[in-house]
Every structure is written in structure tokens, then in C-alpha cells.
Amino acid sequence: xxxxxxxxxxxxxxxxxxxxxxxxxxxxxxxxxxxxxxxxxxxxxxxxxxxxxxxxxxxxxxxxxxxxxxxxxxxxxxxxxxxxxxxxxxxxxxxxxxxxxxxxxxxxxxxxxxxxxxxxxxxxxxxxxxxxxxxxxxxxxxxxxxxxxxxxxxxxxxxxxxxxxxxxxxxxxxxxxxxxxxxxxxxxxxxxxxxxxxxxxxxxxxxxxxxxxxxxxxxxxxxxxxxxxxxxxxxxxxxxxxxxxxxxxxxxxxxxxxxxxxxxxxxxxxxxxxxxxxxxxxxxxxxxxxxxxxxxxxxxxxxxxxxxxxxxxxxxxxxxxxxxxxxxxxxxxxxxxxxxxxxxxxx
Length: 347
Fold this sequence. Notes:
It contains 6 helices and 24 strands. It has about 350 residues and is mainly beta. Strands 2, 3, 4, 12, 13 and 14 form a 6-stranded mixed β-sheet that branches. Strands 16, 17, 18, 23 and 24 form a 5-stranded antiparallel β-sheet that branches.
């Protein structure tokens, strides 16, 4: 799929496109299945065109994080600019500036040079002979008879500009040109990032986990029943595997940050967790030991016997009235069915 199609597919069926923080772990596997290039969640910032950032997995919209345009993960010459060259069809094509072509220089008159250089070296070459890469106008366009560089470039996602002091509105782009390489891909052999035309069709990898955020408002007990009633066949497997769910137990405080990001798109400020006060003590519905470090009251106020997690910077459980209605988060378990026996494998 192209980049946009790939991202929509991942968002509908999983979480989002895989990001650079995990993609290197996939390199060896991708090589073994003969995949040479994949789309990843890396994009030129639409508001700062010289900046590359990762997709915002939390909100599902826009980009976020640090500027990655100078990261060492880029393959040489891949992240920044495109330059214009006359092709064998005598029309203009946008190509990587590191490519090598013959050169058109101009000091008032356009002259074709048989040297083969990158665009940047071609620009220096023309300067050394007291000229510039050629600026093309309506009046001199018929002087282009061979393939070669001209002085039109696109630096860091900005508009196409002519090198030097000359300017021209004349364009002779080939069909579907100019290409703008605004989407990031990953090569598992080189383990480097590449800027690519977003319309190019590539394989892709989606990010996924075993969590399901349910945007329905239910009481705590209704949420538990809803989670436990969710079943589906395992992705790409036979009838011997299925998914079942339970409301999420979250005893490990290290998981708070990730889960809080996952519930960002919940429609309530807090979501139900599998935390319940019953029989004079707090417990998780999956039976895991509770280690609250004093965060939970030993004798909670009347009805505040169920636990929630806030999506706004709270690294602790919150106790609420179990009859309140809010969104909730379920945990997916893989059920393997073998010889009429059922075994549980956490995913």
C-alpha cells in the first residue's frame, strides 16, 4: 500500500504504523521473509517542512517528538532534498540530489557539459567556471536536448526554487512529477531510514499489543462482563486458536505510562481497571498480587470500591463508585485449543 493507506490499515486493525523505537528489532525477521523495505511511522512535519518527526501514536493525528532530520539512522543523503533533472524524455523529473547526471550551466547562455556529477557537485562545477546551474525559461527551454541537471531544487520540503539570483515560473514536469519524498521507510538490510514518495507502494508493519480500549460507558461490573464476553479468532491462525478477554489488571507500576497513552482516545477522563475492594481487601481480577505502596485506602469510603486509571498524568490508581459509568480497558488472551483441552498463552 502507499503510506497513507498503510497507516489507515494499521489504525483500523491494530494501533498504528510501527515506529523507529521498535523497528530495528524487526530487521532480522524482515530479512528472513525477503522484505526489502517497509513503511514506518516517520513523516516530514507538515508545519515545519525541514523537520522530520514520528507519527503521534497517542492521538493518531499529526507528528510528535524530537526533530529526527539529523539522526544517524538516515541513509546518506536521504532525508532532505530533491533536485530537478532533465530526463531522456526531455521533461523534468525530481530525483535525489545525490544522483549523478550530466550538467547544464548558464552564464546567460545555456551550455551542456558531459561531466557526471551529483547536483551539489554540479552546482560547484558551474560556479568554478563563473556560471550557475541553468535557470530555464520559456525563451531558452528549447536548448535542453540531453538528460542533465538544471538549477531547480527543493530543500527540506520547501517550495521548488532556482539556484542563484535568477527566477522563473516556467516548468516542464513529467507526468505525476514533481515527486515529494515526505514519508519514511526502513531497509532491514542496511537498518537505515529512507525518504520516499508517499504514493509509492511498499510492505508495512503495524504496531499492536494485547489491549482493547472500549469506548462505551458501563458500570464496573458491566465492564467486566463485557470484556469476558469478547471473543475472536486469532489473526491468521486455524480453528485451534481464539482470543478471549478480561478487564485489565495493572499491578506493575512500570506499565502505567504505556497504558495511559493507550487510553488517550477514551471518551471519559478515567477508565475502569480490574481493581476491586471486596471482603475487606483490594484485589485484581486476574489474581495477581496487589502492591499498592499505601496508595489505596485500607477502608475506602462507601461505594468507592472500584479502581480507575486517569489518562491525564496520574501514575496511580483512583478509587471510584462502582456504579458510575465510564469507558474501560480489556486485556486480550490467546486460547489454544488442543485435543479438547484449552490452554492460555499470554500475548
